C-alpha cells in the first residue's frame, strides 16, 4: 500500500480507504461483528490506515465496531466519520447541516468511537437550507477545540463547495481538504464540475461506490443472471452500464485480473488525487479489491475504458472546447 497526502493537508492516508457501511447487521444486511474484524485485519495487514464510517451507518453500530477495532492503536489510524442524516425522526434538529446537529452529532460519534478526536469529519450531504457561513464557522470551532483535525464535504454541488472554501480562506477558517463523491466508470457526471473544482482547489477525492453497486464486477453479465429481472430496481443497472462492464471484463481478461481490480485501478490512475473507498460483506472481497494496488493499466487500456464510459460534458464545457470558440478567445495562444 502506498500513501498520499489528502488534498492540501499534511494528512497521510493509504491509497485505498476502507468503507464500513456494511459493518453491522442492523439494516438487515451487512456483516456480523466477527466478519467486520476479518475485513479490518485484511485491510490493515495490506498497509491500510484510512477508515471511513458515518453516524447513520447501521444506526450507529458501524461507529461502535470501528471504535473497538482501532482502540488498540488509535493514533495509527486516520479515522473519518460524518454527520447530516437524521438520528431521530421526532426531532427536527436531529438532522441537517446546522450547528446544533453538528455539535450534537460529533459528541455522539466520539462516544461511540471511544476516542477524543476525529481525524476527518465529513459533512455527509448538503441539506439546501443551512447557510454556508454557519457550517464553516461551526466546523472551524470543532477544529479549534481539537475534537476534529480536518474537515471534508460529501454529496454537495460544486458551487457550494467552492463558495465554502473561498469563504473559509477569506475569514481564516479551516477549509475542506477532501471531497467525497460517487464516481466510477458507470457514473462520471462528477467530471463536469466537481472534479475540475477539486483539482483547482486542491481537494483530495474519495469516490464512493467505485464498482457501481457491483455492476463493474461483471456479476450481472453472467449467463446465470437475468439482468432484465434486476433492471429498474437499481439505477446503476441498465443496457449502458452492462456494456461498460463487458469492456471492463475484456480488459480484465487481458491482464488476467478480476474486473473489480481493473475498475478500481482506472480510478486510481486518474490524474488527480483519487482514493477509492472499498467495502464489502466478506474479508475475501476486501482482499480481492486490495489486489488493484499491484496492477498498472497501460495507456491503451485506459483509453479503451475511457471511450467505453465517456459522457457528454454538456454546456458550457463542450461549447468552450469547440475549435471555433477557442480561436475566438485564444488568438496567438493556441498551438
What keyword list fits this structure?
335 residues, TIM Barrel, alpha/beta, single chain, eight-stranded parallel sheet, two-stranded antiparallel ribbon, 13 helices
Short structural summary:
By secondary structure, the chain is of the alpha/beta class. It is 40% helix and 13% strand.
Secondary-structure blueprint of this entry?
Layout: E1 3-5, E2 12-14, E3 17-19, H1 33-45, E4 50-52, H2 61-70, E5 78-83, H3 99-113, E6 118-123, H4 132-145, E7 148-154, H5 158-171, E8 176-182, H6 194-201, E9 204-208, H7 227-230, H8 239-255, H9 259-268, E10 277-278, H10 283-290, H11 299-309, H12 317-320, H13 323-329
Parallel strand pairs: 3-4, 3-10, 4-5, 5-6, 6-7, 7-8, 8-9
Antiparallel strand pairs: 1-2
Helix pairs in contact: 1-10, 4-5, 8-9, 8-11
Structure description:
The chain is α/β, with parallel strands linked by helices and 335 residues long. It has one domain (3-329): Alpha-Beta Barrel (TIM Barrel). The protein has 13 helices and ten strands. The strands form two sheets. An eight-stranded parallel sheet has the order 9-8-7-6-5-4-3-10, with helices on one face. Strands 1-2 form a two-stranded antiparallel sheet. Strand 1 and strand 2 form a beta hairpin. The longest helix is centred in the C-terminal third of the chain and has 17 residues, at 239-255. The protein is globular, with a radius of gyration of 21 Å. 44% of the residues are buried.
Amino acid at each position: 500500500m502506498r500513501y498520499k497526502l489528502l488534498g492540501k493537508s499534511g494528512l497521510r492516508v493509504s491509497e485505498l480507504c476502507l468503507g464500513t457501511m456494511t459493518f453491522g447487521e442492523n439494516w438487515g444486511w451487512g456483516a456480523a461483528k466477527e466478519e467486520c474484524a476479518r475485513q479490518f485485519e485484511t485491510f490493515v495487514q495490506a498497509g491500510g490506515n484510512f477508515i471511513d464510517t458515518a453516524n447513520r451507518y447501521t444506526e450507529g453500530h458501524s461507529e461502535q465496531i470501528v471504535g473497538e477495532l482501532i482502540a488498540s492503536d488509535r493514533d495509527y489510524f486516520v479515522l473519518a466519520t460524518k454527520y447530516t442524516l437524521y438520528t431521530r425522526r421526532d426531532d427536527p434538529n436531529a438532522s441537517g447541516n446546522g450547528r446544533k446537529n453538528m455539535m450534537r452529532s460529533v459528541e455522539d460519534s466520539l462516544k461511540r468511537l471511544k476516542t477524543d478526536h476525529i481525524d476527518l469529519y465529513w459533512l455527509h450531504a448538503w441539506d439546501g437550507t443551512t447557510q454556508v457561513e454557519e457550517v464553516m464557522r461551526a466546523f472551524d470551532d470543532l477544529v479549534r477545540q481539537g475534537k476534529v483535525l480536518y474537515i471534508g464535504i460529501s454529496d454537495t454541488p460544486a458551487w457550494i463547495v467552492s463558495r465554502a472554501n473561498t469563504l473559509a480562506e477569506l475569514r481564516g477558517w479551516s477549509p475542506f481538504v477532501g471531497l467525497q463523491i460517487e464516481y466510477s466508470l458507470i457514473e462520471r457526471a462528477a467530471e463536469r464540475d466537481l472534479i475540475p473544482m477539486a483539482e483547482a482547489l486542491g481537494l483530495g477525492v474519495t469516490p464512493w461506490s467505485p464498482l457501481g453497486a457491483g455492476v463493474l464486477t461483471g456479476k450481472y453479465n453472467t449467463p446465470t443472471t437475468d439482468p432484465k429481472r434486476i433492471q429498474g430496481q437499481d439505477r446503476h443497472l441498465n443496457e449502458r452500464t452492462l456494456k461498460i462492464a463487458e469492456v471492463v471484463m475484456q480488459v480484465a481478461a487481458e491482464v488476467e485480473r478480476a474486473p473489480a481490480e481493473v475498475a478500481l485501478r482506472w480510478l486510481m490512475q486518474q490524474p488527480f488525487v483519487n482514493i477509492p473507498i472499498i467495502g464489502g460483506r466478506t474479508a475475501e472481497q476486501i482482499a480481492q479489491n486490495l489486489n488493484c494496488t499491484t496492477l498498472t493499466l497501460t495507456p491503451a487500456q485506459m483509453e479503451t475504458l475511457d471511450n467505453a464510459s465517456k459522457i457528454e460534458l454538456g454546456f458550457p464545457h463542450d461549447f468552450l472546447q469547440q475549435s471555433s470558440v477557442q480561436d475566438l478567445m485564444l488568438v496567438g495562444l493556441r498551438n
